[in-house]
Amino acid sequence: MFRTCGGLRARAGPSAGGWQPLNFDGGAFNLKGTGELLRALLVLRLCAWPPLVTHGLTLQVWSRRLLGSWLSRALLRGSIYGQFVAGETAGEVEGCVQQLQRLCLRPLLAVPTEEEPDSAAKTGEAWYEGNLHAMLRCVDLSRGLLETPGSADHVLMQLKMTALTSTWLCKALTSLVRDPRASLELSPERLAEAMDSGQDLQVSCFKAEQNHHLRASLSRLHQVAQYARTQRVRLLVDAEYASLNPALSLLVAALAMRWNSPREGGPWVWNTYQAYLKDTHERLKQDAEAADKAGLAFGVKLVRGAYLDKERKEARLQRTEDPTQPDYEATSQSYSRCLELMLTHVSRRGPVCHLMVASHNEDSIHQATKRMWELGIPLDGPVCFGQLLGMCDHVSLALGQAGYAVYKSIPYGSLEEVIPYLIRRAQENRSVLQGARREQKLLSQELWGRLLGRA
Length: 455
Fold this sequence. Notes:
With 455 residues, this protein is of the alpha/beta class. It has a single domain, classed as TIM Barrel (Alpha-Beta Barrel). It is 55% helix and 9% strand. The protein is built from 20 helices and 8 strands. It has an 8-stranded parallel beta barrel with strand order 1-2-3-4-5-6-7-8, surrounded by 8 helices. It is globular and about 70 Å long.
């Protein structure tokens, strides 16, 4: 079913005479089995149906009631779960990753757990401590999956900070970050020192219980970063809501001061920047320049963003300015500007500046590959690409076969854990799912070609 990477890469790289755009016509689908293509076409069409995404959790409950637990689970495992999830056990995840590696793709594991803003259901230090152990196991799993020569610096995993610290703390830190009077008390330097030494950090305006949670949260983040560094696994911190991101950036900056030294082989902690927010380009520029000035390595995952509807609804409720770009075209322009900014930094700073182009947009991928060629950035160097497992395979496969470093974001875990996670992600990525019509068309063409006996 599969061809080896090496044989295809030898004849797939960019032309020596000039940049040639990759062909995203679905030709690389010939690397996948017919059953996989049929499931992908069915699931992508289902996910493009708005009622299924909107009422997914309710439909799951009714499915269990009408069909019974066993049949309902079997249908989910054979469809949505099988398409977007690596599996539940370490063996199942390993099998998924081995299949990706045969397709010249790499895993980016994600623990499917997080706290929703203002949720009262998930509180208490025990819940966060349980998530800490899940993150540490993810580090081990990520490292163990790629114990191959030359892979030491290419192991990445996602980190959701609100799985280790509460959203109320992030909102409180965001308010303080925006207050100039609190800048010294909450500087990245002070937080980094508290993380490293375990000292009794006190924020003057916090109550004793709040200060305790802050110290516990810093300890959890430090443990994950320290262990990931020991295992040579790079952490990609997910961006979240605009009301939380300043706090997340502060915590990332504190971790970066400890773990992103070039002497440590950094960056080991990356931040995610959402192009659909109006201030992203300026913030990215400031952060890149600050890292350069401080002599720190700098890692960035660049995304368009997934919380558009919720951000606009929150702005209306709070009667504040909408933080998002006015339309998709403006978001694409923002993404293009941020991409150009980061590729320029990569070309200038070399191996201490890393970038993941996390996009399903073909124009963005073409821009990235063309600028990499023009700037002399190697295909398998400090720039990589990322897409979701089970989606955008016509782009991922073409990139991987051409020799670029391509990661697939892979949630794993039990069906009960992952299905609610997938439904939330689907609700946040409606535009991506509904925009997958081109992929559906390419899948249909490949399947009809096989049915009619065409090579």
